[in-house]
């Protein structure tokens, strides 16, 4: 990297961003990642990444800019099993959004094991709702189902473990914004 430091951005006495002008960024093999004619190069400074946002960094520039052909997309054809699973997700969503009857989720969780034994995400959502609404028995059952899924599908271990950890984090809200 080569350039001229123009601005140092601090917050709470910590350096966050170094802004460079006339900057070129290349890797060891010479592949160019940034050129001076592209403008100011802002380099984030830190020891770890604590959060990321999935989406365009510059929403004004990219949001709504589709790459489609403009042709209508044909509706998907779903099997009866997929339709039934979509209904499970819809009922979970209704409970989450409308503060509906959490007890209906007990049957949904039991139905997962009987009908959708390869599905873990619905159980994760049920766990989140049960913990949020202090339904400990349902939370224990949902977490048990998820732990069984980790055993059956070791490739999902980290994903499920992270989901359980996040579901139990009281600093994360289930509030949905409209």
Describe the fold and architecture.
This protein is elongated. The longest helix is centred in the middle third of the chain and has 19 residues, at 80-98. Helix 2 runs parallel beside helix 4 and helix 4 runs antiparallel to helix 5. It contains six helices and four strands. With 178 residues, it is α+β, with helices and mostly antiparallel strands.
Supply the key terms.
four-stranded antiparallel beta sheet, alpha+beta, 4 strands, 42% helix, 178 residues
Number of helices: 6
| Radius of gyration, in angstroms, nearest whole number | 23 Å
Number of β-strand runs: 4
Biggest beta-sheet profile: 4 strands, antiparallel
What is the distance, rounded to the nearest whole angstrom, between the alpha carbons of the first and last residues?
A: 43 Å
Helix content: 40-55%
Measured by DSSP, the beta-strand proportion falls in 15-25%
Order of helices and strands: EEEEHHHHHH
**Shape, per Cα inertia axes:** elongated
**Average predicted confidence as pLDDT:** 85
Structural class estimated from helices and strands: alpha+beta
Uncertain parts: none
